[in-house]
C-alpha cells in the first residue's frame, strides 16, 4: 500500500508542477520581454505587470500544492525514488504541455530526451 501512496504522491507532484510551470510561462509571455521593459520603464513596471497577472498567481499556487505533495511523497517513499521520478516525469509533462497549451515547437531531440527519461523512470520503478 505504501508503494501506491508513493506513486500517487509523485503523480500529484508532477501534475501540479506541470500546471504551475505552464501557467507561469503563460504569465511571463503575457508580461513581455522583461529586459526591454526594465530598460524602458524600470523594474517596478515589471513587478507590477507580474503581480497583476492572474496566471502568475494560479501558477504559484499550483507550485505550492506540488511542493506540499512532494513532502507527502517523501514521507511515504525513498528520496532516491521520489525526487528523480518527480523531476523526470515533470520534464516529460512539460514537453507535452508546452506543445499543447503554449504551442511551442518541441523538436525531435527533446522528444528523444523525453523517451530516454521515461526509460529511466521505468528503471527506477522496477
Low-confidence stretches: none
Q: What is the assembly state of the chains in this entry?
A: single chain
> N-to-C terminal Cα separation, in Å?
16 Å
* Strand tally: 0
Rg computed from alpha carbons, rounded to a whole number of angstroms: 17 Å
* Discrete helix count: 6
Class from helix and strand fractions: mainly alpha
Strand fraction equals under 5%
Main sheet record:
none
Instruction: Please bin the fraction of helical residues.
Output: over 70%
Q: Would you kindly provide a written description of the structure presented here, covering whatever features stand out?
A:
The chain is an all-alpha fold and 126 residues long. It has six helices and no strands. It is globular and about 55 Å long.
